[in-house]
Fold each of these.
Amino acid sequence: METQQRAQRTLNAQTFPLPKRPPIRIVHLGLGAFHRAHEAWYTWKADSEAEWGIACFTGRSPAAATALASQDGLYTLIERSATGDTFQVVSSIVEARDGSELARLRELLRAETTAVVTLTITEAGYHLLPNGALDLDQPAVAADIQALRQSEDLPDNGGPSTPIGRLVLGLGDRMSARAGEIAIVCCDNLADNAAATRNAVFGLAQAADPPLASWIAENVSFVGTSVDRITPRTTDADLDIVREYLGLEDHSPVVTEPFTNWILSGSFPMGRPAWEDAGAVFVENLEPYENRKLWLLNGAHSLLAYTGLQRGHTTVAEALLDPYCSRWVQEFWDEAERNLPSKELQISAYRAALLERFSNKRISHQLSQIAADGTHKLRMRALPVIQAELSAGRPATGAMRVISAWLGWVQGAETIQDPAIEAIRAALQQDGRKRTESLTATIDQQLAQDPSALELIEKLAGSVRS
Ligand SMILES: NC(=O)c1ccc[n+]([C@@H]2O[C@H](COP(=O)([O-])OP(=O)(O)OC[C@H]3O[C@@H](n4cnc5c(N)ncnc54)[C@H](O)[C@@H]3O)[C@@H](O)[C@H]2O)c1
Ligand SMILES: O=P(O)(O)OC[C@@H](O)[C@@H](O)[C@H](O)[C@H](O)CO
């Protein structure tokens, strides 16, 4: 009875009283599930918790901000192991806003107290070309360049619409206010994500406001990271579980696995939380860790998504139970491992741990979620392994199967979310080898010009469906 009465009430600072909230010193763009399971959790768990609060902005829709703001930024983190759930109420997010609230974003970036900007806006959110440069021809980017050119005199509801455009706008304010240096930390699954973010931010500033680009070159530290914690979308059943446990309504709980990893490389000129207290690791050379994670974990995720969906599976754990999918993962991993410093990175143990993590049936990680934005993802998850294997004179069958499975999936999928959707649709109008070539070209032009690669991609397609 008491639980029922409490469940009428929502989780917030009145129903869940806390000590004084920390001051905002971090601005985060991309208020999604992952940020709340990862960086916000590390910030809350660190001993510096009382010093570092986060203001979060959504990317494209206000929904996540509205729900979280109504709870004073508080939310429940459900850590879901194979055997049960544990619950923590995380309080490091002190403000949650829609990304279009530019006045507040600009105010925060003008403040000397703001020391760090972090990003989880998805791979596609950076609008980068396959060569890593900003795609200035993308309509959203071109519109942002125009908006930034009139940033002194923005209309009421005008202004840049992409997270990178909004960030560049705020950096212009920081420059004018002489508020000092700042660190920008990319927490998206991108290869060399510090350079990718620099290319996007610097490229946009250079196109819109060259003096600002020079200021960015001098005053912004781009920090690279490898981020890891499997965090699927929250379901209605999760809301019920939290209500039962907490006795309060929480409209924004997050479900994640117990495993978590954060490796960072770069400097923080205005300071940072003591994230290492919560297990984060700071290294000089990020690349081997990043490759290990992007190729082995994310590469296998994409392989399971495209093969699994074609074979009638819906979650990662289900696909892994399919002996074919599981064999293809091992075959891909063998190839990837050959191109990693295996001993130093303890790849055998890493692979064993991944199998255990993927097999957690209580984490319902939807293959359809992983399948989105394939052209961007495969460039980082499978292509580097293909390139390394081909240059060593090997056929790269395991990694080529990831590309082949993607081709098979796009040819039968009811809905495709991808930044290259127009090129994909055009390719689907073609037949036979021409179709294979055009689809492959949406991922990599060079691979599409390699006849033996195309032959292998076509040959492997049959095995996925059989
Ligand atoms: N979920 C995970 O397990 C996980 C783990 C490691 C890293 N990541 C990284 O975090 C990213 C976000 O994951 P999530 O689970 O929080 O997703 P999510 O869908 O919960 O949130 C994504 C956020 O990015 C914004 N966004 C999405 N597409 C955008 C676009 N094209 N332009 C601008 N903003 C956009 C959304 O509005 C939202 O604020 C992933 O793409 C990945 O790079 C996720
Ligand atoms: O989040 P995405 O869309 O980049 O990729 C889907 C998954 O591969 C990814 O979310 C992993 O679960 C995550 O990277 C694990 O740390």
Amino acid sequence: MVLTLPRKFLLLGSGELGKEFVIAAQQLGNSIVAVDRYANAPAMQVADKCEVISMLNGDDLEAVIEKHQPDFIIPEIEAIRTEKLLEFEQRGITVIPTAKATNFTMNRDRIRELAHTQLGIRTAKYAYATSLDELVTAAQDIGFPNVVKPIMSSSGKGQAVVYQPEEVATAWNYAIKNSRGDSQKIIVEEFIQFETEITLLTIKQWNAPTIFCPAIGHRQENGDYQESWQPAKISNELLVEAQAIAQKVTDSLGGAGIFGVEFFVTKDEVIFSELSPRPHDTGMVTLISQNLNEFELHLRAVLGLPIPQIELLTPSASAVILAHEYADRVSYTGVAEALIENVELRLFGKPDARPGRRMGLALAKGINVEEARKKALQAASKVKVV
Ligand SMILES: Nc1ncnc2c1ncn2[C@@H]1O[C@H](COP(=O)(O)OP(=O)(O)OP(=O)(O)O)[C@@H](O)[C@H]1O
Ligand SMILES: NCC(=O)N[C@@H]1O[C@H](COP(=O)([O-])[O-])[C@@H](O)[C@H]1O
Ligand SMILES: [Mg+2]
């Protein structure tokens, strides 16, 4: 099939990741309708059109699809009524990477069952619970410490490390309170004592082999990403193993697009954690590190455009800029101080702030990863959300 541009994209979720995707898509002349649950979301600020709806509501989704008739649906968050995406796909709209992939990764249990039970991939030991009583038993079975997470959440929301039985009830309440959507189910996982963790950006193409970006290392706090760097330190042997696992899972989900496949890395093992069927937050480091960033790669994979080579230009790092207070208007200070040599900023333009909300990012290049990390952290620390 001969590709003609522009194509029309409907972006479901309009945060910082969506904003960069819109920019990449528009650079090749495409048009984008940005959708989210609140007005003036980052991607809406650069998109052609926008819609504010509940993406968990099937009727709302139906209405925007009817109105805009997109060629592609690009999910940007997990919390979407994905059963509806299966319907749209059957009606001939291309859902990226596939409606099945969004459906399987919307909740932690489906993707875990696929990876572990169906594909036989090693994961942390895990169990599910739908009541506090069940969680008490499950936590005993898994052992302590363990990690309790809502079945539907992201960026560490509702997640807690539980060190002893007395903490189980608090973890249950916290998980249920911070669960997205209507689910009352949690997963409890064995705590993996990893040396490092990586995201392997995996690009699945319609008519070409799957390719990988150099591994990205990252550090998380309370389940949310604080800094990432590329390349990650990992032996070739473990990297090859991670690539094989990423290929296996993404093959089984099908379609085309970029996936962020997350692994825990121990001394002699890579352990599959989870994956996003879309650009990954830790992958924002590629905005500075690679010849093609993760958003450009996603776009090219979606449109079936060539990706001749992925090149790591220089060791690089990203560090997040978080809000510390509630605010219904946002300004930033310290920008001039942050912008030293080989540093860039992305200030997302989120209309309001809450403690812990990611509001921006510092990106830095260095002669090595250590220098890049130091610069990115330093730059991020200069910028204050007020
Ligand atoms: N079983 C575990 N053992 C040790 N650490 C864990 C475990 N599960 C999660 N973590 C830590 O918490 C982080 C976030 O976990 P996870 O990726 O499952 O959450 P998430 O809410 O889906 O985050 P995101 O949406 O940002 O990817 C991990 O990157 C890791 O640092
Ligand atoms: N780990 C997933 C992730 O980073 N998702 C990114 O955060 C946005 C939500 O931010 P918000 O909660 O500040 O609105 C999402 O829209 C996406 O861009
Ligand atoms: Mg994760």
